[in-house]
Amino acid sequence: QVQLVESGGGLVQAGGSLRLLCTASGDTITIYDMGWFRQAPGKEREFVAVINRSGGRTVYADSVKGRFTISRDNTNNSVYLQMNTLKPDDTAVYYCAGRRRFTYYPTTDSTDYDYWGQGTQVTVSS
Question: What is the 3-class SS of the chain, one letter each residue?
Fold first, then answer.
């Protein structure tokens, strides 16, 4: 089993930056893709970014491309989401997710993920 714990959320003004951290514990050898998803009040959970196991492939949602950067440190079983130029529309609970199955390209579909963290709140004020 795998446990994922997110941290780094908070309140920031528009244009500011935050760095989210997700730390995995347990049977981490089974994790391939690591992704970030978010869910705003009254909206469905949406894909933000994903990184494959080696860190060589990343995919971003169009809404965050150029502003967010996902990275991974397998030595410390961690994945990061650097968020710059934040906007009020980025306000949401951010979830870290891990996937057991290997595919050539990282997946952006939340139903393909096996492990989820509890989420961390990001609030961007205007």
Answer: CEEEEEECCEEEECCCCEEEEEEEEECHHHCCCEEEEEECCCCCCEEEEEECCCCCCEEECCCCCCCEEEEEEHHHCEEEEEECCCCHHHCEEEEEEECCCCCCCCCCCHHHCCEECCCEEEEEEC
How many residues belong to the chain? 126
Using one digit for the tens of pLDDT, what is the confidence trace for 7-65?
999 999 999 999 999 999 998 888 899 999 999 999 999 999 999 999 899 999 999 99
pLDDT for residue 117: 97
**Cα radius of gyration (the chain):** 13
Measured CA to CA, the distance from residue 81 to residue 58 in angstroms comes to: 12
Instruction: For residue 102, give Cα distances in angstroms to 8, 46, 48, 71, 113.
Output: 28, 21, 19, 18, 11
The single residue listed with the structure tokens 């949602």 is: 61
